Amino acid sequence: MVRSTLQHATQMNSENVKIVFNVGLYLLLLDQDLADFTDDLVCAIGDRRRAFIAKHEAVLLYEAAEDLPQLLGHEFRGAVKALGASEEQLSRLNSVSSDLSRFWQE
To answer: The pTM is what?
Structure first.
């Protein structure tokens, strides 16, 4: 549904909707990848296989931690605001963005 809405927004030249749904799709794919890696890690047989899967999951987390602050940056905030986000929602977004930045710095 998110992918379909993103494609429709792109066709309709709805830039703000496109920006928000692009981030949403990224997060859904990230969530699915993390769930798949975690399932594989739990079901892995042997330490070598678990270490292999854990290494790739760590790379995914590293890349996501690097990408998310940019994805949730000025352009995203502008789109969210233009689409009618409340001050409370914007405050929550700022809080999440700060947490991500702190995570990346540490």
So the answer is: 0.83
